[in-house]
Amino acid sequence: AQSVTQLGSHVSVSEGALVLLRCNYSSSVPPYLFWYVQYPNQGLQLLLKYTSAATLVKGINGFEAEFKKSETSFHLTKPSAHMSDAAEYFCAVTLNTGGFKTIFGAGTRLFVKA
Amino acid sequence: EPEVTQTPSHQVTQMGQEVILRCVPISNHLYFYWYRQILGQKVEFLVSFYNNEISEKSEIFDDQFSVERPDGSNFTLKIRSTKLEDSAMYFCASSGQTDTQYFGPGTRLTVL
């Protein structure tokens, strides 16, 4: 069965520090992988997606993620955190089941300290 | 830039009442979805809809739930007899021929 695991429900970094949010997936077929961001009281915004074109994917707001098949991982990084990055981040895998069904990880809340 | 819209942003209802949550997907999209997020929990898939029928549904999507595309633009989720545990944020999403789903801002449903 397909699943997504995000390691760490809360991550706290200082402003300017590296952001690393971890995601591992299991999928019986080549996955479509996504990171979404949710700011307080808002909907889900697409950060980036992996669809097999390149293993290193660049997204919005300076985020990027690297797909590592051998590790079944799709970790999200940003070299330098900004206060505005504080939000909940969801890793997700989308399955082609006739439509496209998305399974989300539990989410990681990112705190950025001044 | 086209976006998915949802109304209302917040719905308060009494237990046992029917509610209809409305969504306007991106106009040229063909696949439509509903997800929910109970406060403090992960986003959960409810149902996907294509070509005027349900293509997949989760175990959450029981007989109390139904979806409809009543016209060329709206996509609705109906809960026939709401329960306290239906309180959640409900997200509509749509996608075109690709895998990427675009989500609406959500409707917060509060069942009293």
Please explain how this structure is put together.
The complex is a heterodimer of chains A (114) and B (112). Chain A has 114 residues and is mainly β. Helix content of chain A is 0%, strand content 59%. Helix content of chain B is 0%, strand content 51%. Chain B has strands spanning 5-7, 10-13, 19-24, 31-37, 43-50, 53-57, 65-68, 75-79, 88-95, 102-103, 107-111. In chain B, strands 2, 4, 5, 6, 9, 10 and 11 form a seven-stranded mixed sheet that branches. In chain B, a hairpin with a 2-residue loop joins strand 5 (43-50) and strand 6 (53-57). In chain B, 35% of the residues are buried. The A-B interface holds A 32, 34, 36, 42-46, 49, 51, 90, 92, 94, 96-107 and B 31, 33, 35, 41-45, 48-50, 55-56, 91, 93, 95, 99-106.
**N-to-C series of helices and strands of chain B:** EEEEEEEEEEE
Bulk shape of chain A: globular
Please tally the β strands of chain B and state the result. 11
Largest sheet of chain A: 6 strands, mixed
Estimated share of beta-strand residues of chain B: over 45%
Oligomer: heterodimer
Largest contact between protein chains?
Answer: A-B, 25 and 24 residues
Largest sheet of chain B: 7 strands, mixed
Query: H/E order of the elements of chain A?
Result: EEEEEEEEEEE
Tell me the distance between the termini of chain B: 37 Å
What integer value in Å does the Rg of chain B equal?
13 Å
Structural class of chain B: mainly beta
Unreliable stretches of chain A (pLDDT < 50, length at least 5) are none
Basic shape of chain B: globular
What is the CA-CA span between the terminal residues of chain A?
A: 41 Å
Total number of beta strands of chain A? 11
